[in-house]
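Practice problem 4.
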């Protein structure tokens, strides 16, 4: 699901009263990732990365796998995407400037059909409850957005951004820089 900019996904009712976490896709100094459980934690991390992994306790089957890398002479750890979980992947849009024009990039909400279960050492199909949570988030986004098309791609623009675009405050960037219907 392509999302150039959309309502804050954390306001979606699917998060209320459920055990869920967001995990930022950043480099870590130790093989332990940050678990974000509230809006303030998200606000503190969103300047560090655009990509977050969403995990609900009712479908988490294995911890996310972390791998080591050497970066600038230091040992760092990162989450190996699709290894452990499973997760719903949330890529936030970003605002950037190019040639004196301010753009908003696309974002994405999605999941993989399978994930690597490192305890069983095999690919495993994602559980149905993950799809249920994803569909609830998708429904929330659709209710609070305007649907548009670009080069046969369907995407959703959050109502606030849609207003800002109508006031020429931003332009859609990336894959959406071409004409939009």
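Answer key:
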């Amino acid at each position: 699901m392509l999302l150039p900019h959309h309502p804050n996904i954390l306001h979606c009712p699917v998060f209320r009263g459920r055990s869920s976490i967001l995990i930022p896709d950043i480099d870590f100094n130790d093989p332990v990732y940050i678990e974000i459980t509230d809006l303030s934690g998200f606000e503190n991390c969103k300047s560090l990365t655009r990509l977050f992994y969403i995990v609900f306790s009712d479908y988490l089957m294995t911890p996310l796998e972390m791998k080591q890398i050497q970066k600038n002479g230091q040992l760092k750890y990162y989450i190996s995407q699709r290894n452990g979980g499973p997760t719903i992947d949330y890529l936030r849009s970003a605002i950037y400037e190019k040639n004196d024009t301010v753009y908003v990039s696309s974002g994405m909400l999605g999941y993989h059909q399978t994930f690597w279960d490192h305890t069983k050492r095999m690919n495993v199909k994602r559980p149905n409850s993950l799809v249920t949570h994803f569909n609830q988030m998708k429904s929330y986004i659709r209710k609070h957005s305007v649907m548009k098309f670009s080069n046969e791609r369907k995407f959703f623009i959050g109502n606030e951004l849609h207003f800002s675009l109508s006031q020429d405050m931003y332009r859609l960037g990336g894959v959406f820089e071409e004409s939009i219907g």
